[in-house]
# Entry
Amino acid sequence: MIELNSIYATSIPARPEFASPSGNLDCEVAIIGGGFTGMTAALTLAENGHDVVLLEASVIGSGGSGRNGGHVCQGWSNDFHHISRQLPADEAKLVWDAGMGAVDLLRRRVEAHQIDCDLRFGYLHAALNNRQIRDLLAMQTEWQAKGYDNFTVLESPDKLSAHIGTTAYVGALHDAGSGHIQPLKYLDGLARAAGKAGVRIFEHAAVKSLENEHKSAHNDVKNGGLKTHPVKRLLLADGQTVRANFVLLCGNAYLQNVGTAKMTRCLAPVTSSVLATTPLSDNLISHILPQRAAVADCNTALNYYRIDADGRMIFGGRASYTNVNLGNVESDLRQRMTRVFPELADCETAAVWSGKIGITVNRIPHFGTAGDGVYFVQGFSGHGVALSGLSGTILAQHIMGQSRLFNILSKLRHLPFPGGFLRTPALAIGMSWYKMRDYLRL
Ligand SMILES: Cc1cc2nc3c(=O)[nH]c(=O)nc-3n(C[C@H](O)[C@H](O)[C@H](O)COP(=O)(O)OP(=O)(O)OC[C@H]3O[C@@H](n4cnc5c(N)ncnc54)[C@H](O)[C@@H]3O)c2cc1C
# Structure
């Protein structure tokens, strides 16, 4: 039962809806993509008095933001040395602090805009073997040295069983600063807030092409105090045009028609899938996840799961580079789930869906420029619920001249994925190696 859409919309009585453009538009900033990145960039710009048009090819939340596992993870998406070794100490510190503020930024937005999205704190990084425990302890030591004190090590079976009822793990790191959320409710709340702040949001507004307009038309677009660039002309699938001083590409793994070859080469779309059960009994939940913490194991092709506000198990996993043969996704996810919690063997599946995660070679988000006044960020590497909101804010602050972070982050090197026309098989082989290593518990 593979669904195009996640189960999330079923628990939202009335989703916001937005018209498609009925004519040509002018604006200061055009944003391509109605996920967390685009919406937080739009909100930040509009809150600062700028004139923003947001264009979504389908409906808000049709990309990763409306179909993810809902895990709200602290920090950057890979070991920080991938960033710090490329930067002077003061810049590395700025980047560290920004990453560690991403969850708090999300929490503040939820509070400020009174977004009812089931945000809950408590997270387990679960280790399947001793190598993974050692890695978690090293992470704890590094983060603690930088001032992060939300971790508790759960090494004994007793300590572990207070949080999770399974024998699958040898230990875990509990993080009180990470948690989970109903992602579509959060995105809808951001969209409502952005609409209220004056963002003109359009659905069914696929951008087909992006080009610089002839210079003579330059002065027609209001610049609202932003530094002026050659005017960009975006052509939509239905024939309308949108003219803008700045363009933000916020399509991540779903980006189509626009962007540069370098963006494409440096991003691999990986399919991940999620299964939702029907609501479980309180008794069962108190046995398997008594604190209702979200959990991710430490494998490369990891399992990630949580109990949602309706008592469903939301179980994700099963990374695939080949993006084919989704037929056995449900049985595969059920197998993974019952290996952790055998008592879930009899529970019913309510829905299964898949989506594309954008990953980079070093698993660090890729910031950059795709033309004069055209900026992008992509590749949150499965860590985007909090990081995309930070990244959208960084893009917005950059064009407002309010932050150094974009310039610092866009200096980080991003290698292309290898393989040329053999890219997909090459990625699949690479992934198989990591899966094998996890399987053999090396
Ligand atoms: C199955 C799955 C599970 C995940 N689980 C987690 C998790 O638990 N925790 C976590 O932190 N991260 C998770 N992620 C990753 C996270 O969802 C993403 O990093 C994040 O949502 C990216 O947000 P975004 O706004 O950059 O892109 P998206 O939400 O993908 O939005 C991009 C939008 O751009 C639109 N678009 C593209 N091209 C155009 C165009 N030419 N014109 C107009 N619109 C266009 C698309 O239609 C799409 O709606 C998961 C992802 C998936 C797929």
User: Anything to note?
Assistant: Residues 216-221 have pLDDT under 50 and may be disordered. The chain has two domains: 18-119+182-263+362-411, 123-180+268-359+419-442.
